[in-house]
Amino acid sequence: MSETARERVLGAVCEVLYVDEAEFVDGDATDLRDLGLDSVRFVLLMNRLGIQKGSALQRRLADTLSVADWARELEAQHEHA
Fold first, then answer.
1. What is the average per-residue pLDDT within 8-16?
2. Max Cα separation, the chain?
3. Mean pLDDT, the chain, whole residue set
4. Theoretical Cys-Cys bridge with 28: which of 16, 50, 64, 67, CB 3.0 to 4.6 Å?
5. Mean pLDDT on 16-29
6. pTM of whole model > 0.70?
7. In the prediction, which pLDDT does 61 show?
8. Other residues' Cβ atoms within 10 Å of the Cβ of residue 41
9. Containing domain of residue 41, as a range?
10. CB under 8 Å to 44, separation ≥6 — which residues?
């Protein structure tokens, strides 16, 4: 069974930000900045998720900072690949 986009994003976020899913006060809609996301950790997350620096996908993810939005973007990217 393959890992879903949500599982990938959630795992990366929890690992890089040193948080547990229980800390997501608004569930998958929680703003990742509220969990400690900053520019350095954003770059670490992009690396962890295999997203190229300067790509259109990276720019879209920078505009939408939640697990739900990132999972949606990754799923859409996968469908168009």
1. 96
2. 33
3. 92
4. 67
5. 95
6. yes
7. 96
8. 18
9. 5-80
10. 16
> Nearest 10 degrees: CA dihedral of 12, 15, 20, 25?
-50
**CATH number of the domain bearing residue 55:** 1.10.1200.10
Q: How far apart are CA 35 and CA 74, in angstroms?
A: 21
pLDDT confidence of residue 2: 55
SS (H, E, C) 17-78: HCCCHHHCCCHHHCCHHHHCCCHHHHHHHHHHHCCCCCCHHHHHHHHCCCHHHHHHHHHHHH
pLDDT of 79 reads 75
Q: To which H or E segment does residue 14 belong? A: helix 5-17
Tokens of 55: 């790509």
